[in-house]
Amino acid sequence: MSAVIQAANINKRYGRHKVLDNINLEINSGKIVGLIGPNGAGKTTLLQSLLGLGVASGDINVLGEDPRRARSKMLEQVCFIADTATLPRWMKVSQAIEYVAGIHPRFDQALAERLLTKTQIKRTSKIRELSKGMVTQLHLALVMAVDAKLLVLDEPTLGLDIIYRRTFYDALLNDYYDGDRTILITTHQVEEIEHLLTDVVFINDGKIVLNESIESFENQFVKLKTGPESVAQARALKPVSESRTLSGHEFIFENVPRERLASLGELALASLAEVFVAKVAPTVSAGAHEESGHE
Ligand SMILES: Nc1ncnc2c1ncn2[C@@H]1O[C@H](COP(=O)(O)OP(=O)(O)OP(=O)(O)O)[C@@H](O)[C@H]1O
């Protein structure tokens, strides 16, 4: 397995604001990596730095090239869709397809057309006649039809309804991903990508706070559901978060052996969203703890 992205000591400032704070990241081929962080965490800035679209200090190597020196060569093997991507409004859908076919040697026009048949978009429509969600669908169809080694998606399903979001992620996994390609994806809708990721990276305030394969994530974190009788014992084992539910209490633990927890209640897998909230918003869970301490 070879490294597709290697980034070491990446730093970036806007004035006095440190937006990327000594980021180190390595992503191997065949991985589907979720880059997850709250608003303003630095996700887009990091993606842009990795693709040479923004200037950051540090060592960056993407598919064997330094994107700051050989950006066009690197981009031949990369497909990128930004959350702010636009298409010329006067163009017809058919013209947009022909345009990409003309500039991208690895574009599969028939595949793009096939993907569009899963939407309401007509080839004869002008871009300005499409809804916002349909423009995104068109973008995604164009991007997924490019045979790239690395696909970078920044909030790809923003503004899309749940039915199309599901269709898109199904297509990404079943039609696009071949086990060799690498996909780096940012989204706020963590629950929707959880099942397709091989690896997860949490970023907060410009720093990576978690970087694990899903397998090791599932070993590391566990959820305990318990009744009031075991709350004190559970708290003594230092959960990373605690919340009240209708039926009792739920705790998330990090690196606490399951044998120590099993007698306190029911154990379950902790979801990415639950751990994300626990790791990235500790003040919120501390508040929940205080509240539940009154009983
Ligand atoms: N051109 C700029 N000038 C000044 N500050 C910027 C600029 N671009 C981004 N920032 C700041 O850098 C930080 C990271 O922004 P970035 O867009 O990378 O976050 P993000 O994680 O992608 O957020 P979101 O999920 O809201 O899109 C934010 O605090 C933002 O205000």
Automatic annotation (TrEMBL):
It comes from the Bacteria. Keywords: ATP-binding, Nucleotide-binding, Transport. GO terms for molecular function: ATP binding. Residues 5-230 form the ABC transporter domain. The keyword Lipoprotein does not apply. Signal peptide: none annotated. InterPro entries: AAA+_ATPase (IPR003593), ABC_transporter-like_ATP-bd (IPR003439), ABC_Transporter_VariousFunc (IPR051782), P-loop_NTPase (IPR027417). This is ABC transporter ATP-binding protein. It comes from Gilvimarinus algae. The lineage of its organism: Bacteria, Pseudomonadati, Pseudomonadota, Gammaproteobacteria, Cellvibrionales.
